[in-house]
Amino acid sequence: MRLYVARHGETEWNRLNKVCGRTDSPLTDTGLRQAQLLADKLDDCPIDVIIASPLSRAQKTAQAVAQRKHLQVVTDDRLIEQDYGVYEGVPRDDEDFLNNKRMFAYRYPGGESMMDIARRTYDLIIETKKRYPDSSVLFVCHNGICRVICSYFRDMTNEEYFEFSQDNCGYNVYEF
C-alpha cells in the first residue's frame, strides 16, 4: 500500500501566523492556487482513494485533487487537526504555546495532547491499510496530523518531532 499525506492549502490564519486547530479558517486565494498545484503534482500518481479532514480547508484541497482524479472525497474525523484549546488563535511563536508543544503527553487546557491525536491517527492508518491493502490512498489533513503520520513511519527524536513542519499543499509518500 502507498499512502500519500498532504497538508491543506494556505489559510487566513496560516498567513497571520496564528495557531489554528479546529477553527475553520478558510483557504486564501493563494491556498486555492496551491490546491490546484497539488492536483497538478499528483496528476501522474495512481491515487485510488482520497480521505480528508472534515474542515473546509482540507475538504477544498482534497476536492481539487478529486476532481482531477474523478474520485469522491471520503471524510474522516480522525484527520481533523489537534484541538489546541486555550492556544487556539494565539501567535505561533507564543512562548507558552511552544513550551507546552514540547510536552507530548500534555493536554492543552480545553484541548488534546499529541498522544490523543497519535492514538486516533495511528488507528486510522492501521484501518486504512486493512481496508485498502493494494491501493494508493491520499490523506488530506493538517500540519499536526502530518507530523503524527510521519512519526508512525519513521523514528523521530523529540526535537525532530517538535521541529517537523509540512508546507501548505506539500506532501509525503509512505509505503507499507
UniProtKB/TrEMBL annotation:
GO cellular component: cytosol
Entries under CDD domains matching the protein: HP_PGM_like (cd07067)
Binding site for substrate: 7-14, 57, 81-84, 101, 119-120
Key words of the record: Hydrolase
Active site: H8, E81
Coiled coil spans: none
GO molecular function, one term: fructose-2,6-bisphosphate 2-phosphatase activity
Superkingdom: Bacteria
One Pfam family matching this protein: His_Phos_1
SMART domains, per the entry: PGAM (SM00855)
The keyword Hydrolase appears for this protein: yes
InterPro entries: His_Pase_superF_clade-1, His_PPase_superfam, PG/BPGM_mutase_AS, Phosphoglycerate_Mutase
Single GO biological process annotation from the record: negative regulation of glycolytic process
Keyword Hydrolase: yes
This protein's name: Histidine phosphatase family protein
Source species of the chain: Coprococcus eutactus
